[in-house]
Predict the structure.
Amino acid sequence: MLRFSRSPISCPLPVASTWRVGWGPAAHLDDATWQEGPLALAINPAQTVERQLALSPSRRYVVVGDIWLSDQRSLLTELALEHSLQPSDIQLVAAAWERWQAITLTKLVGSFSLAVWDRERQVLELGRDPVGARTLYYTVQGSTRWAAGDLRSLAPYRSNELDPIALRDYLCCAFVPGDRTLWQDLRELRPGTRLTWPGDASQLYWHLEERLETESQEESLAWHGERLRSHLDQVVQDSLPDAPVGVFLSGGLDSSAIAALATKFHAHPVHTYSIHFGDPYPNELEFSSLVAQHCGTEHHILEIPLRQMWEELPETTAWLDDPIGDPLTVPNLLLGRLAKQQVEVVLNGEGGDPCFGGPKNQPMLINQLYGTISPQDSLQAYLLAFRKCAADLPQLLKPDLWAAVQHEPYCFAEDLHSSASYLNRLMALNIKFKGADQILTKVNNLTRAAGVAGRSPLFDPRIVELSMAIPPQYKLSGVEEKAVLKQAVADLLPEAILKRPKSGMMVPVQAGFQREWKRAARKLLLSRQAAIAPYLNQALIKDWLNYQGDPWRRYGVKLWLLVSLEIWLKVNLKQR
């Protein structure tokens, strides 16, 4: 067990931003919205009760949660309710639960984490959406259980003990994958899963799997592109509010496609938002400006100086449930604040790479094609493909800690060795873990922190399911990635966007540690009082800060990952 007892960094934790519930003999909440028998639940006081809590028509079921349904129409039709009624999303879920109970989860399309209290049977059901656009955490204290839509709400019910396996996995991936959290006694409910109390029984209600149909495999790229386009048209329209909307626009294929579809269907102004880091650092403004002009959006460009990146990191980190070592966290928050000046809802292009065969899959595919790795080595190759600290673990972790976690299994193994086609195995891994545990939670938490609602149409479960039914050769065709997505939106975008290679957002972290952040990073990471000091080898970290000992010159990415971890730990430590 790893226990922290360090002084917290001077950054206040945000207030709990979602619902929370306790079940059991010791379940009591001073700010309870509903207290009944063994159940106590509370909601976010900053939002209206009607958006967070509802009773079923018979008042048997109490539903609390964070719910956004992208497709209300289908549910209204199946319930035989008038579409003109316009119930809130949570009211609609309560009505559906009265009809179908837990089967309701299979009928919901959108983003949600929720709890349903059956007042008659005295049973509590927890559920999370299929792709993990919303989070749900829980813990057990004796005979009492606690759950919430965010990790901060469970802070009173956890210790300061760190999960050593979660720490290992974070260093490999820059996020914590699977059902673990960085805290030893808190767990995350996986996407597409429901959990029942009493009994602690969890059950998958949605399973991501390859669905290659014989007939469709014989169809052409054009046919699959047309089918994908039909889905994209519907999903983007479902994501649009009845008001101006924003789109985070990098100039890459994915965000450009969303911007083009939004302007095609929206009757209100569409605002697009791009970033750069100032001279002399590379940027993609040439491409994002081209798309904005082509689509006729109201375009906004934000410059983020490297000094501001560092200054904003503590507050950004405080909004994350688990640490995320992605340098785009700070830009996401700042871009959300800019968007808040014009819109309440902002779309993004997240999901294109995991669903349609982005270039990050290519190293693993090359290894598999040429047989350069054995099946037993494929897990290590997958970890190395993240290009973080997997190869450094024997030196980076203290010897006793490395000995404790070295042979512990990783959560990726089952999917990596499934019977699906190799590309679809990699895509499933990216959707289930990087999607749910990094991308979507980052989008949700940081846009919410900025006061806007972030939506990711390419991660809509309808798109995700379709992607697993598209033949692999139409996702990664030779050296051309995302061939089917390009086919689907070819009529909407300039040729320069369709043909440009994927580059990714160019966050200059290497230059940041060399020019702006080195002194502050040394003070933070090499201090005897650092929260990471008992667990990581500070001599190796010192070498990285001196740009030594890393032949691949990934210092910047690794140091940002460590800085994010250190700040997150200090922000979240409890005083005892």
About this structure: DSSP finds 23 helices and 21 strands in the chain.
